TrEMBL record, chain A:
Regions of compositional bias (Basic and acidic residues) in chain numbering: 13-23
Entry-linked Pfam families: Vps35 (PF03635)
Disordered: annotated span: 1-26
Membrane-spanning intervals of the chain: none
Protein name: Vacuolar protein sorting-associated protein 35
Gene3D superfamilies membership: Vacuolar protein sorting-associated protein 35, helical subcomplex Vps35-C (1.25.40.660)
Record organism: Chondrus crispus
Automatic annotation (TrEMBL), chain B:
Any one of the GO BP annotations: protein transport
Stretches assigned to the Calcineurin-like phosphoesterase domain: 61-215
Keyword Transport in annotation: yes
Protein name: Vacuolar protein sorting-associated protein 29
Pfam families linked: Metallophos_2
CDD domains: MPP_Vps29
Gene Ontology terms: cellular component: cytoplasmic vesicle; cytosol; retromer complex
Keywords in alphabetical order: Protein transport, Transport
Amino acid sequence: MPLSGGGVTASVRPDEGRHHRESTASVRLKAQRLRRALDTDRLEDAVKIAADVAAELRSSAAAELSPKAYYDVYLSVCAELRLLEMYVMESARRGAPVRELYERVQETPLVLPRLYLLVTAGSVYVKSMQAPPKDVLRDLVEMCAGVQHPQRGLFLRAYLSQMMKDKLPHAAAVENGEEDAAKETGAVAGGTVQDSIDFVLRNFTEMNRLWVRMQHDCSPREMELREKERLELRLLVGSNIATLSRLVGSDLALYRGKVLHAILDQIVSCNDAIAQEYLADCVAQVFPDEFQLATLDAFMQMCGKLKKGVKMRTILVSIIDRLRRFSASSADAANTARDAHAFDVFRSEMPGVMRRQGTSLPLTDRLRIYSSLMSFALESEPERFEHVDNVLGFCVADMDKFLGGEHPKKDGISPRTAVRLSSASEGKDRSYSALSAEDERLAVNVLTMLLEAFGSVGSVLQLENYVVLQRFLSYDKQRALAAQLLMSAKGYTPCIEDEGTLEKLFKYVAPLVQDRRVDERGMSEKEGVEFERFDVTSLTHHHEYLLALIPQSHMSAVPGGKPEGGGTAAADDVQVSERYTIEEMATFQEDQELVAKIVYLCDDTDVERALSLYASLRQELLHGGPRRVPITLPSLILASLRLALRCQAEEKVEVVEDVLGFAGECVSLIPDSHALLALRLQLHVAATGASLGKHAWRFVYDNLSEAFVLFEQHITAAREQHTALELMIVSLGQTQRSLDGEAFAALSRRAVKHATQALTRSDQCVLLCLCAQLFDVEHAGLARECVDRARRAAVACMNAAERVLLLLDVSRTAVAVHEAGVCDVTEENRLADTLGKIRDILAGRAAKSSPLGKLAAARYQRLVRHLKSCSKVFEGLDYSRL
Amino acid sequence: MFIDLGAEVVVANTAQTRSSFSSVATAGRGAELSRPFPEKRDAVQSLRGEPAFLGRKMVLVLAIGDFHIPYRSPTLAQRFKTLLMPGKIQFVLCTGNLCSAEVDQYLRSISPDVHIVTGDMDSAPYPAKAVVNVGSLGFGICHGHQIMPSGTTSGIESLRREMGVDVLITGHTHKLAVWQGKEGGLYVNPGSATGAYSTTKTEVEPPSFVLMDVQGSKVVTYSYVLDGEVCCPVILCSFPFRFLLVLDGELTLPSVYSCIKTGRSACRKRSV
């Protein structure tokens, strides 16, 4: 039985080394005499000498020894006594009565040596089966009470249990499950398992008492030293529990009925922190998993009665982790754990344990326990969300107790009321101190554990305490966690069916939508951005004079949906880019894209319901303000357009208008700083309207004209203007058939005008080429005019290389217009002239020598080859000139 | 022929297909069809054969585009992500509409040589058109929303003439298509990689992309279409146009031929 290391230093017991040497030498000296006596078969002398040897354990030198040194002496004494034992055993086998010896040793005058010899003799007595073991055991365990000195008594009893360990009645028989046989033979031999257990329990109780007393006898000054020494001796006591485990074998009834009860009673009643902590951990480690599950309630109740300050973390983490490993080991094991309702036991007993410990169990330890409990809940019954929620509830209740310094609650808050607590305190000014870094890490760990295990937003939304716990974290952690929640939706299975769930989700991801930390009061920090179209920003210049009549205070409180103007928004952008680093901007973008994907979590099976859901979603997204809306809103807009297309497919014509109206409204909420994006979306709304059918056609004109307004008012950069105009012309072409003649004429005229006014010649030319293809045969004149203007723009271009490329574009357009049968470009040799111009430039020396010129020439050749291949179409063309 | 992208791609191949293919080597671009389709027997073998082209280095060109993440689709299908493992593909030609930096990064992780053109919803400054030379072929990429009248074959053919490329890759329609033009040239539309809907159609095509194996002046295209979660039919088409095979675990030979005759892919269409 090795003792753990870390012996007491010589400075504490200055003479220990000397005493130790003296004792050992003395034992060695006497042992020589003992051997001689045994060799010459002088048993009487041998007993006397053996008593003398054992007496070393009570000598004045031994009294000065630390447990470690004492143990050393104890071991050498034991070795010598073993010689005596073997001698007696040998003679007993030859038929000599042991009883004689058993009685003779009792004549030894000193108590301690007498008892050592008695135990030695008793062990032979039991082994030789000359007396009923039961009686001998009872006799011995009672006699040992004669030594009450803690250290001596403890070692004496350790000797007793050591000697008897392998001689206890029927330990093996029961282990093999032959209970009947055990009873039968047990009756004959005078001892049953019950007796053995009684014996071990009694000895264990006494040992534990002595162990605990070791500390009580000393002054407070020595307390720390004694604690250390006691820890070194813990294995002596703990080995009894291992012996019990062997005796009990697989007999659950026996364990539950007798053994566990006695051990737990002893643990509670000894009222000593070190003993409680060690022994409870022993129980949790030693007995089999099935036993632990079956008697978890008793164990947890015991935990609830332990002394304040006992390291509950060690005990509880050890039992919870053990059960988690067990239930993870196999499907059968998982079922066993489920049938035992292990989690329910934890849930009902845990608050009691925590209440009992109070502030002596710090928050960090509690969170560690809950973290274990969470992994147990997720491992054993992952489909029981309420279990996970309960664990979160525990965390919340404890955080509330530990951090809510200003209004400490009298009693603990049960996890079920935790949510109520948060909602009740919403109005009150209840402030919490921040979590320490380690506590926060643990809390985040608890939450991410379940995110990983669930892998679905829908399941997480069913947890009530998740969001309450989240509020205790710092803003960065909250944001990271919210992003992780959204990322855990791998397949984007729709899981939001009503507004309530959506609202709940936004409580979860609020840190992504708001710049500020979401505190315990929840969403009360919400910036006042209700969706409201009836505001000053919707005024056009026709009614701008009304602004003068509106009080100034209202003017500044413009809702966040749409900032006052492009100028301020641009200024905002500048500020934003100054305030954040590139990495922060990238993280922000990624986070917001996650928010944008929330729309894919919304269930859209029913169109009408989906639309109202989308309306709520828009409301929530608008809280994000002008920085977030351009990233988060487009997905919603395009999702609603998809909804419109589905309405059409399902022939729900009446809803189509609502959906398109909704989409158009959403587009108008995109801040003017992102006018090009708004324009793109506006064109998509128009395109959708066009592909839906006559009833939706009014949306086409409205949205196209809106796009033109955006273009004219907010798109200023040349490159953006070009992109925008290109998109507008293409959309106009696409939606042409859904516009009535006048509307198309108005819009196309405007497009041509803008194209003509483009900044550079090349922009003009390219855009006019696009415009030329807008028109059908009825507007052949307009098409021809566009081609002409494009050619003029191309010709006016300064750079020869650019000029030739633009002319090639023009001639390609002319060919396309001609092939489409809109107008005849061969009239008045228009095409031939253009081609002639190209040829002239290409024939020049500069063009011939440049690689670019060669590319242009190749392109020209391809065009000519094409023209030649469809000579029937281009009848008026003079091929001889090509 | 077999392109192992590291996952359960349906495999078609055979020596026979290879020989019929290599017989065209002299025909050059835009060659007339001399032997339109492999014999029926060959097709049987083509389903269970040895990987061809193992002896030479494959040059794989991926045509992919119209992701619309996060605007119209939350994410690229996991099946596609496992198919498109980094290091297998030499060129990525993207038709645009990525809509987020996330996709851009993803494409650049697949291959070192990535070319992206701008779509109608891209705010990143990609060019409108791009030309990439692979082997002895010129590949042109253009999103295609700029083509007027939109979606017409003549517009796309005129664009190929203008760009002077052999293979023109366009997107925008969200409909997978591979065809050869009247004047030669191969036209590829990889469809939408995420199966995003198009605002101009009430039908939604499944997610798809096209992989091209380029050898000298020859191209074999492989179209990957994700149909549900289960199988990924492979449509083979050689350029110059030799054969078209639609293969997947379920298809039997007659349907292979019916696909060839009608020229339609066997993929199911779904409504919006």
